[in-house]
């Protein structure tokens, strides 16, 4: 008589722990990612030969015809909203030790004279560091 054990079936692998890990990683990356608000209007930045991307605490958009946009507001109220956001930021943080940076996303077709008119208004709001976003182009 043969009393050997019957052949065992291979145990099925449980995929539930792997699915849980992938789901937790997805949640982690969604939470830790920097969410950017939608742009108030489309802007085509000018081309430059820069190495670093400008990233400020605030972002002001300027269209080709000089229309300002901050958050959901456009036109002159955008500067008022930007000033209010700057004041709120300085109440919560020490702006003298680490002044906030402003990122300008201006359209490439914006006349330089209009940009020159806007810059003094921005510095009067308390922005000492203003960065202009430009597309990285090929070196000539």
Notable features of this structure?
alpha/beta; 34% helix; 140 residues; two-stranded parallel sheet; 3 helices; 7 strands
Give a quick precis of the structure.
The protein has 140 residues and is an alpha/beta fold. The chain has helices at residues 16-32, 76-92, 112-124; strands at 47-48, 58-62, 68-70, 73-74, 101-106, 129-132, 135-136.
What is the overall silhouette? elongated
Largest sheet: number of strands, sense, barrel closure: 5 strands, mixed
What is the β-strand count? 7
Mean pLDDT: 81
The N- and C-terminal alpha carbons lie at a distance of 89 Å
Helix content: 25-40%
Protein structure class? alpha/beta
List the helices and strands and how they pair.
Elements: H1 16-32, E1 47-48, E2 58-62, E3 68-70, E4 73-74, H2 76-92, E5 101-106, H3 112-124, E6 129-132, E7 135-136
Plain-language structure description:
- The protein is of the alpha/beta class and 140 residues long.
- It is 34% helix and 17% strand.
- It contains three helices and seven strands.
- The protein has helices spanning 16-32, 76-92, 112-124; strands spanning 47-48, 58-62, 68-70, 73-74, 101-106, 129-132, 135-136.
- The protein has a five-stranded mixed β-sheet, with helices on one face. Strands 1-7 form a two-stranded parallel sheet.
- A hairpin with a 5-residue loop joins strand 2 (58-62) and strand 3 (68-70).
- The protein is elongated, with a radius of gyration of 26 Å.
- The model has no long low-confidence stretch (mean pLDDT 81).
């Amino acid at each position: 008589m043969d009393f050997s054990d019957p052949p065992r079936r291979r145990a099925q692998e449980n995929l539930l722990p792997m699915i849980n890990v992938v789901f937790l990683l997805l949640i982690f990356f969604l939470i830790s990612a920097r969410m950017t608000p939608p742009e108030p209007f489309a802007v085509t930045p000018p081309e430059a030969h820069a190495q670093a991307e400008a990233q400020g605490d605030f972002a002001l958009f300027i269209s080709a015809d000089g229309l300002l946009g901050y958050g959901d507001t456009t036109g002159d109220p955008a500067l008022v909203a930007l000033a209010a956001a700057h004041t709120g930021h300085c109440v919560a943080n020490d702006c003298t030790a680490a002044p906030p940076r402003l990122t300008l996303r201006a359209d490439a077709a914006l006349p330089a004279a209009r940009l020159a008119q806007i810059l003094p208004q921005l510095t009067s709001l308390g922005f000492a560091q203003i960065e202009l976003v430009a597309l990285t182009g090929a070196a000539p």
